[in-house]
Amino acid sequence: MAIQNATKKSLNEYLSDNYYIPMNQRDYSWGEEQLEDFWEDLLSVKNHPDRQHFFGQVVVYTNNRKKYIIDGQQRTVTSMIFLRAIQYLASELSKVSDISDKEKKGLTDLISKLVLVLGSTDNGYDDHSQLHLIFESEIAENDFYSKTIINEAPSPYKIKGNLACENMRFAYNYFVQHLKDDIDSPDYDMDQKIHSLYDYNSALLRKFEVMYLETDDLGESYIIFETLNARGKALETADLLKNYVFSQAQGNLNNIQEKWKQMTDSLAGLDVTKYIRYFWNASHGLVRERDLYREISATIRTPKESSDLVTDLKDNAKYYHDACTPDSCDAYDDQNIINRLRALNILKATSFIPILLALELRKMNLLIEIRQTFFMRLKSMYSETQP
């Protein structure tokens, strides 16, 4: 075993180091449901000083003094965004004209404490300035995190074309608004507002705990990750599959990474695991979701096979997207086909999707009339089965 460190840590201890998000980790994907859970857990420990909250496990791979987060990326990014939201509001409060010297110092000290966790971007004077969380090789995400999340106010405008950045923007606004709703209470004076921000900061950093596992063996880190996360949930299965095909890529990793990202962009938030399962059913035969990882890892064994798989997944994601969301089709522009897809969608039909993918995967140049007949027969079949 190559585990160097295995211990329970407060979030303050865990986030006291610098971390990298490796290129083969999934994009930041937390939405409102996960953020609400995070917020409720935070309120619970903030309002009950005797409580602690277990925030799950974190698996870190150390290489050349760099620490890569193998498991725990979503929670780490969310925590950093939340702390940045506190920092933003502290900075805004410090600009109030009638603030006292004591209150000003309290806010300045809080901002300084947060910088110790968040790090800081290069200001042109400090050669050692560095953010403590870096998205390695994910240039767009890293730029957005460093330039927009850390250095700017939250934007009210949605980001198109990059779901990870949009999720970060949404999380930032979510936390800023929830914090403002608290500290803007008419019963709070400036001193109470500052105390509240301190309490939120302390609740996260001192009351949230993680099980921290660190190894210097990359293979070992993924074994730990798979062991801890092999519980059959859709996103976890997709993560395992992503890690596996990337691990087989060798010198073609950057290309495969880009194609995987194009696939997830085409899916536009749809369940990645469900898509991969339908695709695998269309191309290799029926498999249950719980057996999907085992089946693919037993079949895809070489760099070329990994590259071909991800290429096909990328090329066919648009058809799955249209089958699931016919009101916003990307691949199909024939209105008759779109109408058939809408009808099937209303009927909640899904078993036709592997057939559709199989046709597209084999690049059969079907005439429009044949495709229309296919969809009409499916519609008729599902209509007959409805009560």
List unreliable stretches of 5+ residues: 231-235, 365-369
Secondary structure: number of strands: 6
Return the structural class: alpha/beta
The percentage of residues in β strands lies in 5-15%
Question: Helical amount among residues, as a percent range?
Answer: 55-70%
Instruction: Calculate Rg over CA atoms.
Output: 24 Å
Mean of the pLDDT scores?
84
Largest sheet: 4 strands, mixed
Physical arrangement of strands within the biggest beta sheet:
1-6-3-4
Shape: globular
Helices and strands, in N-to-C order?
EHEHEEHHEHHHEHHHHHHHHH
- How many distinct helices? 16
Write the layout of secondary structure elements.
Elements: E1 3-10, H1 11-14, E2 19-21, H2 32-47, E3 53-63, E4 66-71, H3 73-93, H4 101-118, E5 133-135, H5 139-149, H6 163-183, H7 190-207, E6 208-215, H8 218-229, H9 234-247, H10 253-267, H11 272-283, H12 292-299, H13 303-324, H14 335-346, H15 353-361, H16 368-385
Parallel strand pairs: 2-5, 3-6
Antiparallel strand pairs: 1-6, 3-4
